[in-house]
């Protein structure tokens, strides 16, 4: 029996990421963001509350970085989700350099995307930024022999809202498309 638990956004876990910004005065800031998704094969979306200092920087510059988190720096990343750059200087939390597009690239992050805002959808005080990706930087050891991202080694930290926990990704359980085809073949007998 299933129980109706009401109107819940129940799409967790989602990747926990650090958004890096640099405002119009050159001030770098980092914040944690887990409401993030894919909207086409070349565009992503982040959902950011308009109250955040990071949002002010994005409004001004229309660009930011998405830094995936691994287990080695999840506490630092978490810290960036607990205090605002409006009150605390978070620019020294991570070692970083500016990428080709001028956004902060965290040295410890296994994969960083530099993003450019191309559209904004405002809802419930959130700015949902649809972005193109201008550069993607990845630690070379996370590429397989064909130059593809190897997610058996790249293990982005995940987040779930109901109990506010971070999770690690799991094991490979099957081959996409092959599994479905094998199942269909079995049904035919
Ligand atoms: C695990 C976690 C996930 C978060 N995800 C989001 C999010 O997706 N969108 C958002 O607007 N804020 C999110 N936050 C809140 C911001 O990270 C937090 O308010 C931060 O202090 C804002 O920093 P800023 O004012 O320096 O930009 C999250 C916080 C945590 C701890």
Q: Nutshell version of this structure?
A:
The protein is mostly beta strands. It has helices spanning 53-61, 74-79, 178-188, and strands at 14-15, 17-22, 28-33, 36-38, 43-49, 63-68, 96-98, 104-106, 111-123, 126-138, 158-160, 165-167.
3D architecture notes:
A hairpin with a 2-residue loop joins strand 9 and strand 10. The mean pLDDT is 97. This protein is 14% helix and 36% strand. By secondary structure, the protein is mainly beta.
Provide the descriptors you would attach to this structure in a database record:
36% strand; Pnp Oxidase, Chain A; globular; 3 helices; 189 residues
What layout of secondary structure does this protein have?
Blueprint lengths: L13 E2 L1 E6 L5 E6 L2 E3 L4 E7 L3 H9 L1 E6 L5 H6 L16 E3 L5 E3 L4 E13 L2 E13 L19 E3 L4 E3 L10 H11 L1
Antiparallel strand pairs: 1-11, 2-3, 2-6, 4-5, 5-10, 6-9, 7-8, 9-10, 11-12
């Amino acid at each position: 029996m299933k129980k109706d638990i009401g109107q819940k956004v129940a799409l967790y876990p989602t990747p926990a990421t650090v958004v890096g910004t640099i405002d119009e005065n050159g001030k770098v800031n980092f914040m944690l963001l887990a409401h993030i998704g894919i909207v086409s094969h070349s565009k992503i979306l982040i959902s950011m509350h308009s109250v955040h200092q990071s949002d002010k920087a994005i409004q001004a510059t229309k660009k930011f970085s998405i830094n995936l988190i691994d287990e080695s720096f999840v506490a630092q990343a978490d810290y960036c989700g607990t205090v605002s750059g409006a009150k605390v200087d978070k620019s020294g939390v991570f070692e970083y350099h500016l990428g080709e597009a001028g956004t902060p690239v965290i040295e410890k992050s296994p994969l960083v995307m530099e993003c450019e805002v191309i559209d904004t959808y405002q809802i419930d005080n959130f700015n949902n930024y649809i972005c193109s990706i201008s550069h993607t930087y990845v630690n070379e050891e996370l590429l397989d022999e064909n130059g593809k991202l190897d997610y058996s080694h790249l293990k982005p930290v995940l987040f779930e809202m109901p109990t506010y926990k971070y999770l690690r990704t799991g094991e490979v359980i099957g081959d996409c498309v092959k599994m479905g085809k094998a199942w269909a073949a079995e049904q035919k007998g």
